[in-house]
Amino acid sequence: MTNPFHHPRMTRRSAIQAGGIGILGLGMNHLVPLRAMASPHQRHPTAQSVIYIFLSGGLAQHESFDPKPDAPQEMRGEFDPIATRSPGIHVSEHLPLLAARSDKWALVRSLSHPDNDHRASHLLMLTGRTPLPPGFTRGKPQPTDWPSLASIAGELIEPRTNLPPAVRLPEQMVHRNGEVILGQTAGLMGQHREPWLIEASPDHFQSYGAYPEYEFHHEKGRIDSKLKFQAPSLELPEDFHRGRLQDRVELLKLLDRQRAQLETAANTLSFDRHREAAISLLTESTTRKALDVHNSDPKVLDRYGRHSFGWSLLMARQLVEAGVNMVQVYLGNNETWDTHQSAFPNLKNSLLPPMDQSVSALLDDLEERGMLETTLLVMAGEFGRTPRISSLNSSALPGRDHWGAVQTVWLAGGGVKGGVVIGESDRIGGYPKSDMQKPENLAATIYQSLGLPREASWRDSDGRPHFIYHGDPIPGLS
User: Fold this and answer.
1) Do 149 and 259 belong to one domain?
2) Tens digit of pLDDT for each residue in 10-69?
3) What is the pLDDT of residue 244?
């Protein structure tokens, strides 16, 4: 085990770079989330990285990966199923690109949890823990919340490069009423274990969907808010001159101040990794390239789609290729997939087409680059939708309500066997019929793919150990 009292050696060059971090305006709020601790827990992973695609709002299983054409009219919905490349597996007619690639992905049609509330269900699915934590507060993250999957992976998986080991993008999930969506934080692990947030889509929480091409409002249909998708700038400030780093007297004073600040939030062992991770963000061209999607090959941009879903997944692929271990991607803020009303036109025209395009492009891109077997892809929402179609009021077009009892989770890569369906929902798509799985099983699948053993644990801010496994990995995926 690594000696917790080991004192890292620092060269003059590294010390100069560390001082430069402060000069460039990166304070502790930037450095602390970049903690990248090596761990003795990693063993024989089937994947180097995980991309967790999260569909906030709740994907309708009937209208996507678990159609029920033989259910009663008030339950089966308006869409027809289509055959996939894999015999016996059917999906929605509005997912033709994914249907043609079913030999690369698997479905779990029986994931279930007991909650129908957005805030609680986000916490369940983003942390892999079903019981609500002590101090749970709807709409307000608490320091007693369970840590996110990304926080745990970022803490326990040995970094492949100096980049932050865990990243979330393209924004923080926030409801239009200002409530921060739960499950995104490190909770009990402490703020210094937060995954790095790439805010490429600021202020998106006032709208829905894959802007600009597919931006919509659940009631009004298509809208155009002029939102821009942009990577954070890592350039030096205009008034900063590199020659200032050579002023040794001034630099030493600065380093004294910086080191004192760093040691208040990072132990001696992790200082070196903090420094290297932060320097990488500023100095390595691979980092800037990974965050830059707009200057990618035009053909690649066309394949992914020139919209926020496509740009987000392309950035995720570039970050994984650059060495990030876990990327959590939110496809749509403000509970975009919450199709209570106008479900069928909104899914048909605004939601399923860009998701189908972008996820299919990600699959192809990873395979062509030889990365699919080493990258686990997971796509889920906080819950499914009710088997019965209903209307919010007499003037609204019909949709489906919240339904934690069953949802379909989509997986690919990282050793997952394609053309496989695990579990089954009942004939109306309301409850698991066989092989019920829980959020704990999905979390265990992710941890196992990354090589974390059953005895792996993390420590809270008081030093108490917490095991990460609370269920078995989903069987039959590999």
Assistant:
1) no
2) 444 444 444 443 433 443 344 333 333 334 444 578 899 999 999 999 999 999 999 999
3) 43
Contact status, residue 165 vs residue 325, Cβ threshold 8 Å: yes
Residue 152 lies in a domain: yes
Query: Cα(150)–Cα(412) distance, rounded to whole angstroms?
Result: 18
pTM score above 0.70 = yes
Which residue is listed with tokens 């033989």? 70
Kindly report the backbone phi and psi dihedral angles of residue 432, in degrees, each rounded to the nearest multiple of 5, phi listed first.
-65, 135
- Looking at the structure, tell me whether residues 159 and 98 fall in a common domain: yes
Q: Is residue 194 domain-shared with residue 259, that is, in the same domain? A: no
Examine the domain organization and report whether 282 and 399 are in the same domain: no
Q: Which residues contact 472 (CB under 8 A, 6 or more apart)?
A: 441, 444
Residue where one domain finishes, among candidates 291, 326, 360: 291
Number of domains within the chain: 2
Q: Is the Cβ–Cβ distance between 407 and 111 less than 8 Å?
A: yes
Closest CA to 127 of 438, 476, 452: 438
DSSP string across 3-40: -TT------HHHHHHHHHHHHTT--HHHHGGG-----T
The boundaries of the domain holding residue 147 are 48-231+293-467
Distance (Å, rounded) from C-alpha 434 to C-alpha 441?
A: 15
Give the confidence band of 103 by pLDDT, cuts at 50, 70, 90.
very high
Structural element, H or E, at residue 266:
none
Q: How many CB atoms lie within 10 A of CB 321?
A: 17
Residue 3 lies in a domain: no
Sign of CA dihedral 206, 208, 214, 220: negative
pLDDT at 27: 38
Please tell me whether residues 392 and 266 are part of one structural domain. no
